[in-house]
Specification:
heterodimer; A: 107 residues; mainly beta; seven-stranded mixed sheet; four-stranded antiparallel sheet; globular; B: 117 residues; 11 strands
């Protein structure tokens, strides 16, 4: 199975900050990488698919980059609703696998 | 807008079969891939498998011998069956939809299933 390693596991930031979360795959996955947001009491939300494509309706402050093994999710200016847990997922090989998550907290 | 809702028993005895249903509203199950994913504190998010509208399935090899995912387009539902459960199968189970880009959207809210005697 392809292992997905996210870092950091937790991050404290303030409203308005620019933050980045990284995800590393244990082998190349081309651009078959998705990013999700999970807020308490809400369903998981697809933010980015194919490494860099913003899901329809998603805020433009979210962006994704990377290919091969290294990927980054960037939030350009944090909003209060962005404090949540973020997960990456590879869909290059079955079984599709997820990172353990990055919890973004208010500083 | 498409909504997914999981339903089924919250408690299953060890060695028995876990059965869950996902009801799709606001859209048809006659296209897309329909998946089950679970999350536990030990393993994190774990992809279980999917069923396509043709009935084609694909499962996580670690669960393949115990899992069946099926689709009922007449009821706009799909189901998960996991046999011979143990405490390791205790998790929140989610249903989700994906297209050919393999991004999962939407997801259900999830349902907690506990395996215990």
């Amino acid at each position: 199975d392809i292992q997905m390693t996210q870092s950091p596991s937790a991050l404290s930031a303030s409203v308005g900050d620019r933050v980045s979360i990284t995800c590393r795959a244990s082998q190349t996955i081309s651009t078959n990488l998705n990013w999700y947001q999970k807020r308490p009491g809400k369903a998981h939300r697809l933010l980015i698919y194919s490494a860099s494509t913003l899901q329809g309706g998603g805020p433009s402050r979210f962006s994704g980059s990377g290919s091969g093994t290294d990927f980054t999710l960037t939030i350009s200016s944090l909003q209060p609703e962005d404090f949540a847990t973020y997960y990456c997922q590879q869909t290059y090989n079955i079984p599709f696998t997820f990172g353990l998550g990055t919890r973004l907290e208010i500083k | 807008q498409v909504y997914l809702q999981e339903s089924g028993p919250g408690l299953v005895r060890p060695s028995e079969t876990l059965s869950l249903t996902c009801t799709v509203s606001g859209g048809s199950t006659r296209s897309y891939y329909w998946s089950w994913i679970r999350q536990s504190p030990v393993k994190g998010l774990e992809w279980i498998g999917y069923v396509y509208n043709t009935g084609t399935t694909n499962y996580n090899p670690s669960l393949k011998s115990r899992v069946t995912i099926s689709l009922d387009t007449s009821k706009n539902q799909f189901s998960l069956r996991l046999t011979s459960v143990s405490a390791a199968d205790t998790a929140v189970y989610y249903c989700a939809r994906s297209g050919t880009n393999w991004g999962y959207d939407p997801w259900g809210q999830g349902t907690l299933v506990t395996v215990s005697s």
